[in-house]
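@channel sequence for tomorrow's demo:
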Amino acid sequence: MTFEPTLDFARQLDAQDPLRDFRQHFLIPPAPDGQDCLYFCGNSLGLQPRTARAATERQFENWQNLAVEGHFKGETPWMHFHQRLQDATARIVGARPVEVVVMNNLTTNLHLLLVSFYQPTATRYKVLMEAGAFPSDQYALETQVRMRGLNPDEAIVELTPRPGEYTLRTEDILARIEELGDSLCTVIMGGINYYTGQVYDIAAITRAGHAAGAMVGFDLAHAAGNIPLHLHDWDVDFACWCSYKYLNSGPGGVSGVFVHERFADQPELLRLAGWWGYDDKERFKMKKGFRPMRGAAGWQLSNGAVLTMAVHEAALAEHEAAGGMPALRRKSELLTGYLEFLINRLGLTKQQLEIITPADPAQRGCQLSLLVHHNGRDLFEHLMAVGVIGDWREPNVIRLAPVPLYNTFEDVYRVGEVLGEWAARQ
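structure tokens (generated this afternoon):
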């Protein structure tokens, strides 16, 4: 599309947008002037669906009226509440329902999966990740390695961009996997790098990891609900993600887990076990000897947090109603492309500001990371003061994420105006 830097053009795109009504389904915080803020921080915390409060209120009523019987009675028995989320979750990540379960929080699930899929031997013990991954992933891997009696400095191999570059080249990732060969036990990467916004080639990385004899998994915190995923078809071994960013399920919202179907009937696979992961047909017999449920559900430990799962169900319904990832992705590419177009028109040099997120739409989601070389914090504080809610990452990056469910092209135009006013003073 040929973009134009005018308010009329932005409003024309909004008028043509088939998803334009979904903005009204979310609660937008006010700016200092009392108007809706320009919320570009869905990559950190998505907005509240208007249906979320009623969804939790229904469960409060069930708790009030049914108490413990709420596990088995009412319209939404808690015993099987996680199954209510299964189909929509599977569609978001490109999985079969048996391959997904909603439970716990992200880093907890990452640990649980690494117990199963990082099983080092004397010779095959290395784990590959991207340098500068989100700290939780780094800490999880460090401690998992130490639990095996290994030295993180020797076992963890980090991928770094080439000198002068900010993102990883796929060919370099694949070459490193091949180089590690028989020493590589597990590959664990983000689906999207939180800092740069780069989308990794999950299918190619998975193929290369399997060719080397390694297990391959992904932290999809910034990918789930942001980009189309096909975890089953890509043959990914395992993955996990949070629900509070692009899935709009509230602060600390429940996490999702994917375990490929080929592991569904391997009860002998090492894992940490809990009662809720036990075969639900036999669970209440309270027998010794763990017998996991089939598929990803067999990694559950405890009964689900129903209040947060209720919010998640309400949020998933918004994604479903919008037409799922194909429809959201189409709008996302346009929104992000328009923001990129407006930033590139500011006339700033790379010594002042540069976009470190890939320019290729296939290699990014709806986030642009702006590297501001001088007075970046001042720019961020100015954006916040005028009601543009973005995200600051040390030492000098501002992340802006136009989310297709609730951001508009006029939002993007207004952010471009604010950045243009700042650029004119440089």
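heads up for whoever presents: The chain is about 35% helix and 15% strand.
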